[in-house]
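Folding follows sequence. Below is one example:
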Amino acid sequence: MASKIVGLGMYAPPKKLSNHDLEKMVETSDSWIVERTGIRFRRISDPGTNNSDLALAASRKALADAGVRPEDLDLILIGTCSPDMVIPSTACFLQMKLGASNAFAMDVIAACSGFLYGLSVADAFIRSGRAKKALVVGSEVLSPLLDYTDRSTCILFGDGAGAAVLTECPEGDGILSCHMQSDGNLWELIQIPGPGTVNPLTPDMISQKLHCLRMSGNETFKHAVTKMGDVAMKVLADAGYGVDDLALVVPHQANLRIISAVGKRLGVTAEKVFVNVDKYGNTSAASIPLALAEAKAQNRIASGDLVLLVAFGSGLTWGAVLMRM
């Protein structure tokens, strides 16, 4: 048996933070942000909103789309780097809120690659017979982890969630190939330094903003384009398909320059690359499932289409999934 996605759902907080809003907060401009990132808006959660709240909204839509009840789930995975708490896992909070009493739940920490890592794990559990129905979520509330005096990061990121329900299917349908990779030697490129055992929670940690996201943008760009392109070609080759067979590529929505560069590296036309980074910004692990759900809602994908998902994130982590809808 293999696994396939049978339901998709997404949720983005209603509050929009525009480039013009950011002009009042940090030294930047709408034209500068659009030219370098393609982002015009990002969604920001209200104070007191938890990651699991966003995950719950997206999951309910995915379950309804799939016609699956929460109690039918065997497995819940959440890809996130902005959990409700250090422990317990955000997936356990989601299990409680859904009433998915028969599922076991855990978080997958792979930053922007988190959803694809989770998809790969769920696929393996279903193929092994250890699960029949799984819920895989990418959900982030990154806004409290941003330094709004650092224009290199605060202009990029937003909050959101996307979810997918997976079930069994015959081999040759659904997910055809997965490949995940990582390189811890490059951990410094994208990081949130604390709190943790390296940087314990102290007044100095807060005053130095070690709890905020930091990124080396130029180096990240080069690695992202190369590694996403290479891993995408690997899953295509492993499954015996070529770029021309693809109906749609859904890349991690980091910024438009990276998305465009990956598309060119793969040799796919712009029309085959799904983009919604202009509306939501970089939502890390939520990026791909949110984009995939929106692509389905816009009728950009149909049953039988060959779709490529590809991501890159802190760790460094990267991966790709090839699937037939």
In short: The CA atoms of residues 29 and 299 lie 34 Å apart. The chain has eleven helices and 13 strands.
